[in-house]
Design a protein that fits this description.
rod-shaped, single chain, mainly alpha, 125 residues
């Protein structure tokens, strides 16, 4: 191998390492952490509704006022809200998994192209 070919391979390897580090940072930053304002707002609203529902149910049990709602209404509403939260979390996890798959697929494509270049350089020498 010539010095020029070795220099090109070293540069390609260093570029690959830089890309790998950048991709690790990106994957680490999206690895399931919910940092968006929508997710934070959704969580606060969800916790607020569940807390309000819990407090109203406790008030209903200790208060002797005639109740217009059935006894299990708050339980049914709580299960419904938790189901919505689980569906929301599954949706977010699916988006994260799709993005990670896309990044890993691009890494594989890049590795294959580098492998072809290395094989061509080996065959030319």
């Amino acid at each position: 191998m010539e010095n020029h070919d070795i220099h090109l391979l070293v540069e390609e390897l260093e570029e690959y390492r830089r890309e790998k580090d950048n991709i690790r940072k990106v994957l680490g930053s999206i690895g399931g952490s919910l940092t968006g304002w929508r997710e934070t707002l959704f969580n606060y609203v969800f916790v607020g509704i569940m807390f309000w529902l819990f407090m109203m149910d406790i008030y209903r049990h200790f208060n002797t006022v005639d109740h217009k709602l059935p006894g299990f209404f708050s339980l049914q509403l709580g299960v419904f809200l938790v189901s919505i939260k689980v569906i929301w979390m599954i949706h977010l996890q699916t988006k994260i998994a799709h993005f990670q798959f896309w990044i890993l697929n691009s890494i594989e494509f890049r590795l294959n192209s580098i492998s072809k270049i290395i094989n061509e350089i080996r065959l030319n020498n």
